[in-house]
């Protein structure tokens, strides 16, 4: 049974503010279009924030952590206990996203949606567990309906916290050893793609490991028919708790009117599920970077997404999105603070 809030309407971008922002861009002391995508970003953020002068000042980052039963199938180069160890590392400030959040003066929290072992009471870590990891999707459904609901609600709760803090940007991150396998499984179903196209190295598999991952995916997918038009059922059968939480977060961002900056492969898989469930939320998603994972490009193409960066990153955690934050800030600063031709006494073309 789906949570009732999934049926809440999605907020519409403010086209009046978009028009005002577009007109201002045409008055700034530069040739039209000369700032490229930075101009587009400013106009887009104006529409999403309902403000002629957009800003990126209060950034909320939530990293969702969970384990995956499919790790038992040997689809990751790292052991499963790394997930909970990394939760402790996030809390201690030693992870990449911890450093980037501090650098960008962003609020960072971690939500344990279902690590194999509970991390205990750690600063900045919230427990909203759907279970001790998902079941092994190679041989059975990844989660039960009630577990899916808990995970979706965890994403909703994170966005509600962001709203309470007055956030003008939400970033979702992921941590879960083996989670490129459920991400690829969801991509295969929703894009009608072969596992050989979407299976990638993840945390560092060699070619033999990638071939094995594709085999595991084929065995998992062989148990299901007609999931293509059932995105939440595909999520339940093949996803992960942290991916489900991200789905809940992205839908909630669109409902509550908070722009979401999507990170890499795992978060884009969640975005794909969310958009297939509610297509109108696509307007609220900005895409930060193109991951080195081979399946990411196919997902981005399906979402008509043109990411801001391509740095060969494949870490997850929300790190790629955090690296892109300065671009959004620059777009706002230029839009808000450049002089117009009239202000500067500069002759227009």
TrEMBL record:
Keywords: Cobalamin biosynthesis, Glycosyltransferase, Transferase
CDD domains: DMB-PRT_CobT (cd02439)
Gene Ontology biological-process entries: cobalamin biosynthetic process
EC number: 2.4.2.21
Entries under InterPro entries matching the protein: Nict_dMeBzImd_PRibTrfase, Nict_dMeBzImd_PRibTrfase_bact, Nict_dMeBzImd_PRibTrfase_N, Nict_dMeBzImd_PRibTrfase_sf
UniProt-annotated catalytic positions: 317
Catalytic reactions of this protein: 5,6-dimethylbenzimidazole + nicotinate beta-D-ribonucleotide = alpha-ribazole 5'-phosphate + nicotinate + H(+)
Pathway in which this enzyme or protein is active: Nucleoside biosynthesis; alpha-ribazole biosynthesis; alpha-ribazole from 5,6-dimethylbenzimidazole: step 1/2
SUPFAM superfamilies membership: Nicotinate mononucleotide:5,6-dimethylbenzimidazole phosphoribosyltransferase (CobT)
Gene Ontology molecular function: nicotinate-nucleotide-dimethylbenzimidazole phosphoribosyltransferase activity
Family: Belongs to the CobT family.
Primary role: Catalyzes the synthesis of alpha-ribazole-5'-phosphate from nicotinate mononucleotide (NAMN) and 5,6-dimethylbenzimidazole (DMB).
NCBIfam families referenced in this protein's UniProt entry, alphabetically: cobT_DBIPRT, PRK00105.1
Protein's recorded name: Nicotinate-nucleotide--dimethylbenzimidazole phosphoribosyltransferase
Organism: Sedimenticola selenatireducens
Gene this chain is encoded by: cobT
């Amino acid at each position: 049974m789906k949570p009732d809030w999934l049926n809440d309407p999605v907020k519409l971008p403010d086209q009046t503010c978009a028009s005002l922002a577009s007109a201002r861009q045409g008055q700034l002391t530069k040739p039209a279009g000369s700032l490229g995508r930075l101009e587009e970003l400013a106009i887009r953020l104006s529409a999403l924030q309902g403000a002629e002068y957009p800003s990126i000042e209060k950034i909320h980052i939530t990293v969702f952590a969970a384990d995956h039963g499919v790790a038992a199938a040997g689809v990751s180069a790292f052991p499963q206990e790394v997930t909970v160890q990394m939760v402790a590392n996030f809390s201690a400030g030693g992870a990449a996203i911890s450093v980037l959040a501090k650098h960008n003066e962003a609020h960072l929290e971690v939500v344990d949606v279902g690590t194999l072992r509970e991390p205990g009471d750690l600063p900045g870590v919230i427990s909203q567990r759907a279970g001790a990891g998902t079941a092994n999707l190679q041989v059975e459904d990844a989660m039960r309906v009630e577990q899916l609901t808990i995970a979706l609600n965890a994403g909703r709760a994170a966005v509600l916290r962001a709203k309470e803090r007055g956030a003008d940007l939400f970033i979702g991150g992921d941590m879960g050893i083996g989670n490129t396998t459920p991400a690829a499984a969801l991509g295969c179903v929703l894009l009608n793609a072969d596992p050989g196209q979407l299976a990638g190295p993840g945390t560092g598999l060699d070619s033999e490991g990638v071939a094995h991952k594709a085999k595991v995916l084929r065995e998992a997918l062989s148990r299901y028919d007609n999931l293509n038009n059932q995105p939440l059922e595909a999520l339940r059968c093949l996803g992960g708790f942290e991916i489900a939480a991200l789905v809940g977060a992205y839908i909630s961002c669109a409902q509550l009117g908070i722009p979401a900056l999507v990170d890499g492969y795992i978060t884009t898989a969640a975005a794909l599920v969310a958009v297939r469930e509610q297509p109108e939320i696509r307007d609220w998603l900005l895409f930060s970077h193109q991951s080195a994972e081979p399946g990411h490009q196919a997902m981005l193409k399906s979402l008509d997404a043109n990411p801001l960066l391509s740095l060969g990153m494949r870490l997850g955690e929300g790190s790629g999105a955090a690296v892109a934050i300065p671009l959004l800030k620059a777009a706002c600063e230029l839009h808000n603070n450049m002089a117009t031709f009239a202000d500067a006494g500069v002759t227009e073309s």
